[in-house]
């Protein structure tokens, strides 16, 4: 196996070029942990927050990456056999210990989920965090039900794409947004019933389609538009705050009675891998493999193209998931 590997290391906050490929020692693995031979990993907004210094709960230098897919290289505790195909995500990856931007990563066994699939590595690499966050937002945050209407604000993000597809699969009517009119067609291709251009004020447009307001809403843009999303939601409806694509995290001088309409519920989601049961992940992977869950990959990058991939993510230039192939 050799004594070293390649990893993408971030010594501290900076531009995309701060992500440097280095030769580093092979990470050691002990009981309760699993070493994964990484084949691919998806990019996530939280890694942009890490790189730009917005996230403050990280040590440096660090190998970023809150998810990865590959095969088990070693599991001293016997949790998984060597060579087993797995996904790894969350649990401190890329923040409190080195993450998935590497040829090998060592993660807690509790953050590893085995899967059976014939999907190529890049496609599998797009799924873990995207599905976990979408699934958790829809089922834990919003408790969705067949026949409901849902507004997804930030619909061309990877989470927005996944949420739309999962909501349609569950039988909801989907309204989904983009700031770019040229992307309305991409939303329609995903099965979105009502694609909308988001100019920052959507409540009236939503209520032209659903006069009483939507049953549930998924907020992925940020607190800058959260009051408007709340106004688009029906009495006894629920808004789940999950994302901050705008990098606006808080509402100054927040006064709930001025922001939250009567009878509208506001919740949030920021869960862990345990929120996506292995059976649910396997079901989703099977649906993707069968062509019945049309999740979108914007582009697959080579390992040494990590800076370019981060530039695209930072500029909001992707519709769907950005993926890096390690091998």
UniProtKB/TrEMBL annotation:
<dbReference type="InterPro" id="IPR013154">
    <property type="entry name" value="ADH-like_N"/>
</dbReference>
<dbReference type="InterPro" id="IPR051603">
    <property type="entry name" value="Zinc-ADH_QOR/CCCR"/>
</dbReference>
<dbReference type="InterPro" id="IPR036291">
    <property type="entry name" value="NAD(P)-bd_dom_sf"/>
</dbReference>
<protein>
    <submittedName>
        <fullName>Zn-dependent oxidoreductase</fullName>
    </submittedName>
</protein>
<keyword id="KW-0521">NADP</keyword>
<feature type="domain" description="Enoyl reductase (ER)">
    <location>
        <begin position="14"/>
        <end position="324"/>
    </location>
</feature>
<dbReference type="Pfam" id="PF13602">
    <property type="entry name" value="ADH_zinc_N_2"/>
</dbReference>
<dbReference type="Pfam" id="PF08240">
    <property type="entry name" value="ADH_N"/>
</dbReference>
<dbReference type="GO" id="GO:0016491">
    <property type="term" value="F:oxidoreductase activity"/>
</dbReference>
<dbReference type="InterPro" id="IPR020843">
    <property type="entry name" value="ER"/>
</dbReference>
<dbReference type="InterPro" id="IPR011032">
    <property type="entry name" value="GroES-like_sf"/>
</dbReference>
């Amino acid at each position: 196996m050799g004594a070293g590997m390649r990893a993408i290391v971030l010594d501290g906050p900076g531009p995309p070029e701060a992500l440097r490929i280095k030769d580093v020692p092979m990470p050691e693995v002990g009981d309760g942990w699993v070493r994964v031979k990484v084949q691919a990993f998806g990019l996530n907004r939280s890694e942009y927050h890490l790189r730009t210094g917005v996230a403050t709960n990280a040590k440096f230098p660090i190998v970023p990456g809150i998810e990865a897919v590959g095969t088990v290289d070693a599991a001293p505790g016997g949790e998984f056999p060597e060579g087993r195909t797995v996904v790894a995500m969350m649990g401190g990856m890329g923040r409190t210990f080195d993450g998935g931007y590497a040829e090998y990563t060592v993660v807690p066994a509790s953050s590893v989920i085995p899967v059976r699939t014939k999907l190529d590595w890049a496609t599998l690499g797009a799924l873990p965090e995207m599905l976990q966050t979408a699934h958790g937002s829809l089922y834990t945050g919003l408790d969705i039900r067949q026949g409901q209407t849902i507004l997804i604000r930030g619909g061309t993000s990877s989470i927005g794409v996944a949420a739309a597809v999962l909501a349609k699969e569950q039988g909801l009517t989907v309204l989904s947004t983009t700031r770019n009119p040229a992307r309305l067609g991409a939303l329609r291709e995903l099965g979105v019933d009502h694609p909308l251009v988001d100019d920052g004020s959507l409540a009236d447009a939503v209520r032209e389609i659903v006069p009483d307001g939507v049953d549930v809403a998924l907020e992925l843009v940020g607190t800058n538009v959260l009051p408007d999303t709340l106004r688009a939601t029906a009495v006894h409806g629920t808004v789940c705050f999950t994302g901050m694509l705008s990098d606006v995290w808080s509402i100054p001088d927040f006064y709930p009675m001025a922001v939250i309409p009567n009878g509208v519920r506001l919740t949030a989601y920021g869960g862990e891998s345990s929120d996506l049961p292995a059976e649910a992940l396997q079901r989703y992977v099977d649906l993707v493999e069968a062509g019945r869950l049309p999740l979108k990959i914007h582009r697959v990058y080579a390992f040494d193209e990590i800076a370019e991939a981060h530039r695209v993510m930072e500029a909001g230039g992707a519709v769907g998931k950005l993926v890096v192939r390690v091998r």
